[in-house]
Amino acid sequence: MNNKNYRIFFAILSILPIVKPFTEIKCPTEICKCMRINNTENSAAECSDMITEVPHNIISLKIIKNDLNLTSQTLYSSQNVLFLDISGCNLSEIKKDTFSIMKNLQVLNLSNNKLTSLAFEQNLHSLTELYLDHNDLTSINDELLNLTQLRILSVSHNKLISFPSNLPRSLRFINMSFNDIAHTIQNPQFDGEILDLKRNQIECIASQGWNMINLKVLRLGDKVKTILIDATDETIGLTEFLSSARNWIERPKMDGATQNILKKMLKLTFLTLDYYLIEDLKFLQPMEELNKLILSYIKVDKIDSLEGFDKLQKLNHLDLEGSKELTSLILDNIKSLPIDESLTYLGLRNTELKQLHLQQMPGSFFIYGTLHPDIKLDLQDNILQCDINICWIFLQMKESHLIKPKFTFCTDVENKKSNKIRPLLENGLRSRCLETQFRTTYHKATTEQNIKYKQPFNKNKTTTTDIIVLVIITFLIVLLILIVCLTILYLYLRFKKMHMFLPTSNLIQATRLQEIDHSTEDIHQGQV
């Protein structure tokens, strides 16, 4: 290493037992290695790793968790740096010319500081990613337009109260979650693909003031009541949508306009609805491409059918956290739904479950009568009854099947005096289920209930397995017919060959018999 690039600090800090210094000196543990000197009360601070100048060949620079006074001189030799991370450095201000030398900078991370405002130079033409999360920003000035190549802007966990009116047209991903944004300003410049505004104060969002043609992911919350999107708007091409009303004291009812908009989102693969009052689930019916659905803390009103679930044949992830009534309705009817053959994840956290029967589990959880190794079940924040009805869990389930098994509990109902709450997969309880009487009762119960692990939801439905079996059977039949035909052909050719090459004695005998017939005929004619 070149010594001119480094400054070596080695200080011996003396603390005299009798004479106290005017100013207490402490070892700077944040930036130096502090060691106690043997047989003394002194400490040594070794700061040889402190860098004073950035080498010219550095392209990625991280200055993390340091107290900096950042100026243009600090980064004077950093003109070749492409990736700069200055997160967690207690920065409260960045002067306008700080990054003036860094014309090639592509990624800038200023997260976890104390910034209240920002100013950007016009020469950062190469900047494509800007991260300002966990600061104290209340607004973003118009100088952001100078970043003409910016594609990713993340300003989550700040104090923004409104959406910026001017943003670079180049932006494709905006993350302004966890702010205090109450309304969105008309912003026709935005032509991105991902817009994250969750955990804000937005009550209504409309597409009229936005250019959302290319938008694929839209996340809103936590006070959204109404969503107004033109039915002809290309925004219906969304593949992921999140809407939450968690910040309302009383659950808002999902209105008809919002449900009609949801019905138009035919390309959705991921849908999250949180803390709504819903009267029916019919808006789910057109979403045949949906594979991940989160309906958390949903309260249902007058729902007596699951009509919206009858087309969700690709759904493999279903999370019903906090949705008590909806959970009961789905578990009781799961064998009649397409999700019985597709689910690999089922979230039932905090749904007040007391019992969980084997027949309430989707058939896709099992393969040849045992739990599939890749399935996940979330039963946290429920207190199940430790009785015979959950013995199937102890007999088949492993810790890898459960989300946080240490926080999944049941209570011993047999000992009513203690009602001890214990981890669900506790060994003592497992051993009880392994006893002969419990196993016998368990198998008898499963037989009486006629549980089928792979029961199809529709007898007329043709599954992939059915098609494969049909193809194999057809192939075997065709092969058998071909073998029979070849056998017949072989026998025919063999017989014909034998007929063509009869022995000579047989031919002579046949000729003599023919001559005798002719002689007999001549004699008969002579007599006549």
Automatic annotation (TrEMBL):
<keyword id="KW-0812">Transmembrane</keyword>
<keyword id="KW-1133">Transmembrane helix</keyword>
<keyword id="KW-0732">Signal</keyword>
<protein>
    <recommendedName>
        <fullName>LRRCT domain-containing protein</fullName>
    </recommendedName>
</protein>
<dbReference type="InterPro" id="IPR003591">
    <property type="entry name" value="Leu-rich_rpt_typical-subtyp"/>
</dbReference>
<dbReference type="GO" id="GO:0005615">
    <property type="term" value="C:extracellular space"/>
</dbReference>
<feature type="transmembrane region" description="Helical">
    <location>
        <begin position="467"/>
        <end position="493"/>
    </location>
</feature>
<dbReference type="InterPro" id="IPR001611">
    <property type="entry name" value="Leu-rich_rpt"/>
</dbReference>
<keyword id="KW-0472">Membrane</keyword>
<keyword id="KW-0677">Repeat</keyword>
<dbReference type="GO" id="GO:0031012">
    <property type="term" value="C:extracellular matrix"/>
</dbReference>
<feature type="signal peptide">
    <location>
        <begin position="1"/>
        <end position="21"/>
    </location>
</feature>
<dbReference type="InterPro" id="IPR050328">
    <property type="entry name" value="Dev_Immune_Receptor"/>
</dbReference>
<dbReference type="Pfam" id="PF13855">
    <property type="entry name" value="LRR_8"/>
</dbReference>
<dbReference type="InterPro" id="IPR032675">
    <property type="entry name" value="LRR_dom_sf"/>
</dbReference>
<keyword id="KW-0433">Leucine-rich repeat</keyword>
